[in-house]
Amino acid sequence: CILKTSSYPAVSETSKVSISILTKRCEVILGQFLADENDLGDRPLPSVRIEETVCVLQELARLILDIETANALNIPLYLKDALRENQSHGRAHLLSLLPTFSELVVSREPRVRELVQVLLRLISSELGLQRLT
């Protein structure tokens, strides 16, 4: 069930503010994972850090935004235009985290790599991109 926030002005305003806070917090968590992975070298990451990162990636994949919330995201106008042309906006939040996902693609943690691949596919779909073959 997707809540239509336009029917509830207070919910709509709250979601517009909350999405930027949520994406920033996710960026911090994912950035900390990257920093820890780099700092620890070949040593294993704490399982808590891995579980936290996996949870964040899974929830980002599940999250669906309404158009008003998506429009409140701080992403370049040309990307918003691409979403509008593709009549897609539900996963626009993933676009704001694309630079971080690009760094996570080479993670040593298999579950993180797999989830990032899923998120990249969702971004491609959101933008209307498909494989050439």
UniProtKB/TrEMBL annotation:
PANTHER family according to UniProt: ARM REPEAT SUPERFAMILY PROTEIN, NUMOD3 MOTIF FAMILY PROTEIN, EXPRESSED
Annotated source species: Aegilops tauschii subsp. strangulata (Goatgrass)
Name under which the protein is recorded: Mon2 C-terminal domain-containing protein
Domain of life: Eukaryota
